[in-house]
Specification:
The complex is a heterodimer of chains A (about 650) and B (about 300). Chain A is an alpha+beta fold. Chain B is mainly α and about 300 residues long. Chain B is built from eleven helices and no strands. Chain B is flat, with a radius of gyration of 24 Å. The N and C termini of chain B lie close together (about 10 Å). Classes of the chains: A alpha+beta (about 650), B mainly alpha (about 300).
């Protein structure tokens, strides 16, 4: 046997090699789609409720559709930017706002269909929004619906005695799957039983259902009304045999009977009392806490797109988004998904406006390397490159197919206001004024970016940005001297933190020189790999750090509400009561011009205190093949795929 | 029988190795600052707590270790942290064949080019062929594959326009990356073949074969090559390892959705479960390939005994 093998071994090897080559070259062959673009990275998820990020948005906006859609509309401004507006050219064909601006009524169009033929109804939205807010979904964007009446109480499990509650029993039909939910009972919370607050370690053990308003061992006493009769029952979301619950039960001396304590999945604020309601199958009503003028922007934003309940309940939270199972309501369908390669989208014929969707198939590529992406674009393999490499922008700028315009994004430095000497606003202001931003824009980034003298980018409708001063070395020196450091004497070295990237390093080096030359400050640079960088920023172990922010919607609030005290994205330790109150006040202001005035005042406060140093406003950078029609430069750099078409006569260069 | 004992023994060692790799990387991964839940937008505390609970990140580290180990034993690597629509098993199932295809083509390039030029160099020793092949071999070994990739892209994509720049989905797209991947190994194989061949060609039995009047072709291909194959086969073990790990960078340059891309991204994004899955797959694969090479070696060389 072995001898035989030995004799024919070389031939065997050749046959095996031949077969495997045949297999290898036939693996995964797929002809390119009609329109191919680079989305920059693999999307984290295509589940609207769980997604964040721009690449995810491009895909979700193609697959799903919300009540409204943000589309380029109107006359381009002096920079050639078309404004984007949320309009009822989506699942809703009209909507009304009540006099006081707090009740929105959306009318869902008659021919709104899911891709399996079901009608899209108001119940679909109510259910999807409930899922989006549900604490177990843990949607990162859930605060977008905190403007809705009782929305935050539901999402954060912020319960008080007397609140209506819903209790989900531990009888979910499919184990390990959130939907369909178990039996839900509704009642009134009459008492919350918790350990006495003096226990020090009570807070750190929040197993399973930790976080939010109610954490640690808690027993809920709920009253149920049945006709004239009322009864009470005790529930907990912990395990009954949990030692802390046991101690709590045994030490309890109140009036309620705890012998029948029942462990349940959730005790939440009753969703029926949240301001989200389906009045009929096509009328959807949302009640807000306060007039929120940019609420339509939020409604058009992709996290609030609906998902198909029946297929989600049938396949579960992860599986329902797979090709073959996914049921969606947008202009495109998901045909195929190859991880870190592409998503293949095809036109959805059941879409209400399918007649106006021109692309029949789209490939969404996940190319990380900017150089490769540009190579593919130049080679005709891509129709749209979303991130050409920075170093080549000066060359690419000269071409007709380079579409670029300032948009709603700011490159800035965070200053850690808890680290001396940066706790002194004068020092922070001096640092800002000593940076020659124009030079950075002209000779480092070179893509047509605009030096930033405010945090909120200019161009938002009705908003005049604040001002943090020009490049002024004398003034900067004077401020620093006033702060007690004449000519930088006695000032400790300042460290600039940035995540590893050539462009960030180049900018940091220019700023290092500016500060040294203009103020006599010693500056050290520290670069960290992305994951470590984020962690360092989060725990506040830095002095000055590179940052960036892209506005989610065209309203100053998306920039300014970051810096309220202890806001998760604040990260500068800056806290200002006046600012906090102002941002809160703006929520309740229904007069747009007054509201903008409040924002302007708050932004000026931010600029005067300078916990952040704006450097420049980003420009959108797109390479778009000239055969593509319908691609408009706009303030939010959104380019809905269903508006694009391909000019078959047009030639590639 | 002998083969069976050999395989069993190898399998035992593999289990031990996999367990050690698992343990070391489990704890090392968690030592690195940052975590899978960090992103540019910071999560609110409530959401973070929920997500930690979902991924069992809030449990004590020893408990996490045991749970993860138990799942791994059952070949369930869990959900991917950063690609929430997929489990790690699904990601590996999609990525592995892609890397394998690339690796196979690279290997076939390396062996066919390497052996041909090696044989020619040995037979035409000190000729212009010999010198130029060996110069190319040295270059192939010396130039890192990503530099080679850049060069080839300039030449074949932009100047000659023979191949697409990158991507996955067409035969023409795999040629350049497979060539770049195989080039250094082709260089080694060429040199090994040449040395082996020269040694064999000097043997008495080759002279005998010539004396019997066999044609030079038969002598070289039938008698010579068989002996020269041995060092090449023993080099295949390390070569396969090199091809596997070498594809990390190339996959990125040529946008090939294989294991390498997943592995690098998982490490950068702290996708603990995916990084672990990829790492263990690599471990098992290396073990399996080395075992196969050892088996093959014992088949072609009667002097080698498995133990």
């Amino acid at each position: 046997m072995v001898r035989l093998l030995r004799k024919y071994f070389p031939f065997l090897l050749i046959i095996i090699a031949g077969l495997s080559v045949v297999w290898a070259v036939n693996l995964g062959t797929l002809a390119p789609a009609e329109f191919v673009f680079n989305n920059g990275t693999e999307v984290k998820t295509i589940d609207p409720a769980k997604a964040t990020g721009v690449p995810e948005g491009r895909v979700i906006n193609a697959l799903y559709e919300g009540l409204l859609r943000s589309v380029p509309d109107g006359v381009p401004d002096e920079l050639g930017r078309t404004p984007t507006k949320p309009k009822p050219v989506a699942m809703a064909d009209s909507y009304e706002v009540s006099e006081d601006g707090t009740i929105y009524t959306f009318h869902i169009r008659e021919n709104a269909k899911w891709s399996n033929g079901d009608s899209v109804t108001a119940e679909d939205f109510a259910w999807s929004w409930m899922r989006f807010l549900h604490p177990e979904t843990a949607s990162e964007y859930n605060y977008q619906l905190f403007y809705v009446k009782n929305g935050s109480k539901f999402a954060l499990v912020d319960l008080d005695e007397g609140d209506p509650v819903e209790i989900e029993m531990k009888d979910r039909p499919v184990t390990g799957q959130m939907f369909p939910r178990g039996t839900v009972r509704r009642g009134k919370l009459v008492s919350l039983i918790r350990p006495a607050p003096d226990r020090e370690h009570a807070g750190d053990d929040s197993h399973g259902h930790g976080g939010g308003g109610v954490s640690g061992p808690t027993i809920f006493i709920v009253e149920f009304q049945q006709g004239e009769e009322s009864s009470t029952a005790a529930f907990t979301i912990q395990d009954i045999n949990d030692t802390e619950i046991q101690t709590l039960v045994s030490s309890y001396q109140g009036e309620y009977d705890l012998t029948e304590l029942l462990s349940v999945e959730h005790v939440l604020f009753d969703f029926q009392h949240v301001g989200i309601k389906a009045n009929s199958s096509n009328e959807f009503e949302v009640t807000l806490n306060s007039p929120t003028p940019y609420f339509p922007e939020l409604v058009a934003f992709y996290p609030l797109h609906p998902v198909h309940r029946a297929s989600l309940e049938a396949h579960g939270d992860r599986e329902f988004s797979k090709p073959g199972k996914i049921v969606s309501n947008g202009p495109f369908l998901l045909k195929e998904r190859r991880i870190r390669d592409r998503l293949r989208l095809v036109k959805n014929d059941t879409y209400w406006n399918a007649g106006n969707v021109h692309l029949n198939s789209v490939d969404v590529l996940a190319i990380q390397s900017e150089t490769t992406s540009l190579n593919m674009y130049l080679n005709g393999q891509l129709d749209w490159d979303t991130k050409p490499p920075n170093t080549l922008i000066p060359l690419l700028k000269e071409r007709d197919d380079f579409v670029s315009t300032p948009f709603l994004a700011c490159y800035f430095y965070r200053v850690n206001t808890s680290k001396p000497p940066l706790d002194n606003p004068l020092v922070r202001k001096a640092l800002n004024m000593a940076i020659d931003k124009q030079t950075i824009v002209d000779s480092v980034v070179k893509g047509g970016q605009v030096p930033a003298r405010s945090f909120v980018p200019p161009g938002m409708n009705g908003y005049q940005s604040a001002y943090c001063g020009q490049y002024d070395v004398e003034e900067a020196k004077r401020l620093l001297a006033t702060a007690g450091y004449p000519n930088g004497q006695g000032l400790p070295a300042i460290e600039i933190l940035y995540n590893t990237a050539d462009s960030h390093r180049d900018i940091a080096e220019v700023i290092q020189q500016d500060w040294k030359k203009n103020l006599g400050v010693d500056v050290t640079l520290r670069n960290l790999e992305w994951g470590t960088f984020l962690d360092t920023l989060r725990v506040g172990d830095y002095m000055v750090s590179r940052s960036g922010w892209i506005g989610d919607y065209a309203d100053p609030n998306t920039f300014l509400d970051m810096f309220v005290t202890d806001g998760p994205n604040n990260q500068t330790k800056w806290s200002n009561a006046f600012y906090d109150q102002g941002i809160e006040k703006a929520k309740y202001e229904s007069d747009p011009s007054k509201r903008m005035a409040i924002f302007r005042e708050m932004e000026q406060t931010l600029m005067d205190e300078q916990p952040i140093i704006p450097i420049y406003f980003y420009v959108s950078l797109n390479m778009v093949n000239t055969r593509v029609n319908g691609f408009t430069a706009n303030l939010q750099d959104v380019h809905p795929l269903h508006l694009l078409s391909i000019d078959s006569e047009g030639s590639e260069d | 029988m002998q083969v069976l004992t050999f395989l069993l023994k190898r399998f035992g060692w593999m289990i031990v190795t996999v367990w050690i790799v698992f343990t070391v990387s489990f704890f090392l991964m968690r030592q690195i600052p940052g975590g899978p839940l960090n992103g540019e937008r910071v999560l609110s505390e409530a959401v973070r707590a929920r997500l930690e609970a979902r991924y069992n990140l809030d449990a004590p580290i020893s408990e996490q270790y045991l749970t993860h180990l138990w799942n791994t034993v059952q070949l369930d690597f869990g959900p991917s942290f950063k690609m929430q629509d997929f489990t790690v098993n699904e990601v590996l199932a999609q990525g592995f064949p892609v890397s394998a295809a690339l690796g196979i083509l690279g290997m076939v390039f390396a062996i066919s080019i390497g052996m041909t030029s090696g044989v020619v160099s040995a037979v035409r020793r000190n000729s212009a062929y010999d010198y130029s092949f060996m110069l190319l071999a040295t270059l192939g070994i010396a130039i890192p594959n990503f530099v080679l990739a850049a060069l080839l892209i300039v030449i074949f994509v932009f100047n000659l326009q023979m191949f697409p720049a990158a991507g996955w989905g067409d035969v023409s797209q795999i040629i350049l990356p497979a060539f770049c991947l195989g080039a250094p190994f082709a260089g080694y194989i060429a040199r090994l073949t040449r040395t082996g061949m020269l040694e064999v060609l000097g043997n008495d039995y080759i002279r005998t074969a010539y004396a019997k009047g066999l044609s030079p072709r038969t002598v070289v291909l039938k008698h010579g090559l068989r002996g020269a194959l041995l060092p090449v086969v023993s080099y295949l073990g390390p070569a396969i390892a090199g091809i596997l790990t070498g594809s990390l960078v190339l996959e990125r340059i040529f946008v090939i959705p294989g294991m390498g891309s997943h592995f690098i991204e998982a490490a950068i994004q702290r996708d603990y479960t995916l990084a672990m899955g990829a790492l263990l797959t690599y471990t098992v694969l290396l073990f399996a390939m080395n075992t196969l090479v050892d088996l093959a070696y014992s088949i072609i060389d009667p002097r080698v005994r498995l133990e």
